[in-house]
Amino acid sequence: MRNFLKNLLKTLIVIIFISTLYSNTNLDKLDYEILVTNISKKIITEAQYSPHEINDIYSILVYDNFINKMDYERKYFLQSDIELFDNYRESLDDILNYYESDFFNLFIEVWKDRVSEIKFFLNDIKLDELDFNKSESIEIDAEKRDFLISKDEMLDDWRKRFKFQLLRKYWNLSELDSTIDNRTFNGNFNEKIIEEAFRKEMKNTNRRFDRLISQDRSELFAIYMNAFTQTFDPHTSYFAPERKEDFDINISGRLEGIGARLREDEGYIKVVDIIPGGAAWRQGELKIDDLIIEVAQGKEEPVNIVEWRSRDAVKLIRGKKDTEVRLTINRTDGTTKIIPIIRDIVVIEDTYSKSMILEHKYINQKIGYITLPKFYHDFKNQGGRSSAEDIKKDLIKLNNANVDGLIFDLRNNGGGALEDVVKMGGFFIKDGPIVQVNGRNNRKRILADRDKNIIFDKPVVFIVNQYSASASEILASAMQDYNRAIVVGSNQTFGKGTVQRFINMDQFIPPGKQNHTPLGSLKLTIQKFYRVNGESTQFKGVIPDIILPFKNDYRDIGERALDNYLEWDTISKTNYVKLNRDDDLLPYLVENSRDRISNNQFFQEIINRRNILEKNESNSRISLKNIEYISRALFEKEESESHDNIMDNFKDFDLIDIISFNLLEDMNEIEREKEKKFHDKLKKDFYLNETIFVLNDLIENK
């Protein structure tokens, strides 16, 4: 990394001094935006993995990206505004060649005008003027919406939006009131609750639009810059100084907050990662892909954060250790939930690997089990803890316990240290390549295990899900390619097969312009991962050998859900030797698993719920007639409760006995409680249960 930055710095310094763009005359004219724009272009064109040619096609992509970022739901701008902006659609590439701010100035002017008009209109809405008996509806799927023609149409659409939000608020409040039974709703609101809902929704609306109106030019410029950078790929991003600080706090896992990583996603604040060992991870209810709708400080009134920037939302969610924050979230299954979390710092011990022995009541095997939340490595301290060394110790313990096989759990593992992945792969094979890393201009490196010692030579099954990413995908795919392990899990893993590095832009500021610091940073995609068989893990991820059903199978998750993702491709395969395996073994394992799934009530309910959710999500036009809205909400609630009741039948599932290497009596009270919760979770884990059966089939047919 140091050599990479050193060479890049030398290249850019030469470019800066010899380019007419940075002549003394032009340097005097540069302001903050010009510096950020031109330095970004230089860094990206010199070092990004797959830079586009800066031309009119690129301009169109940037333009569309920016409009989507600012108005994905097509609710702020008129068609005439877009036609006005379209005059610049093919000329934004010029901004990266010589800074031209006409479009950005025009955009800000129109944006501020439209937001102010909408706020002024909404402030005049009166509760008694809203007709909830009127037959009208609203389309909530942004991809089915078009920009509206007239201002009257736009404002009427906002009336419907406000009405929709008010109905949703009424539903949520009435469900919390034990004296109200919505099953008997006849079209007449509870007066007290509808008035409270109106007051709260109006307050949220005013707060939301005040924040939009107060956005300064630099905040909008950061979004504008990311329209340029993220057109190359979704992970190449501009971080303004404050946003980079937020990222550093999040990535360190040391914040006094909930221990979750958030991202703006089509107007919502989306949970993209749960930090192992953090408060949310320990509490257990917050999930990746949850959308945070409201934030409350303990029992205080919640604040709606729809259309907030992530940095502002994070300020509400962070707080002092041991204080409570309540998050109202929307789930991918359409349900809404309030999750109370006690803020805390990340407990580092909870991020480490765990190993134990599993014994199943219907299987006569001793099963080794390892779970790894992330591929950690303390590079700052010599002799610091690493996941590879911990896994090695775990494997030796399991060997000494004479286990018959191993389940390696990589579910929700978002990646980490590549060095540790390579070492871990070597624990299961004699030697050979583990991963190929391809850089710009096809500069390929092969990372291999050269230690001929095998730590664990018994049957292995890896279990993964949609949130197993990056380093997890490398390890699972390598073991799959070598025929060393069977991979079990969701229809595919996350699909993040790229490497990023942060570059501080301040180091490239020309002499005499230091007063513009700090400029911020670029997160740059610089490399791509490839399996030993030559296939990328990008986009497609890892396709398990045995696929289990999940409720969210129908949704695009991971790289598939991002715009401008880098495509899956292949390079030449490495020289590696597959282990011998009977050609009939994998089909036999797959068929056995399918038979068990088809006769398993838990998995059949998961499939049934998945089909219902997909159907509900496709029906995206919502009636604003109160009796029809409440009827639909009630129907979906009853569907959800029916599912929950069925799932409750599985809470007493207890076919797995756990033998821990750590004695409970040697732990303090807090550690004992955490260990017991972890064991209880494993015992009720139907995905782990099916994986045990797969491993048993593998052991008996090795």
User: pLDDT under 50 segments (min length 5)?
Assistant: 4-30, 248-255
CATH architecture identity of the largest domain: Alpha-Beta Complex
Number of domains: 3
Q: Based on helices, strands and strand pairing, what is the structural class?
A: alpha+beta
Structural commentary:
The protein is of the alpha+beta class and about 700 residues long. It folds into 3 domains: about 50-230, no CATH class; about 255-340, PDZ domain (Pdz3 Domain); about 350-495 and about 535-700, Alpha-Beta Complex (2-enoyl-CoA Hydratase, Chain A, domain 1), CATH 3.90.226. Helices cover about 40% and strands about 15% of the residues. The strands form 4 sheets. Strands 18-15-14-11-10-9-20 form a 7-stranded mixed sheet, with helices on both faces. Helix 16 links the parallel strand 14 (about 460-465) and strand 15. Helix 7 (about 100-125) packs antiparallel against helix 9 and helix 15 (about 420-425) runs parallel beside helix 16 (about 470-480). The radius of gyration is 27 Å and the shape is globular.
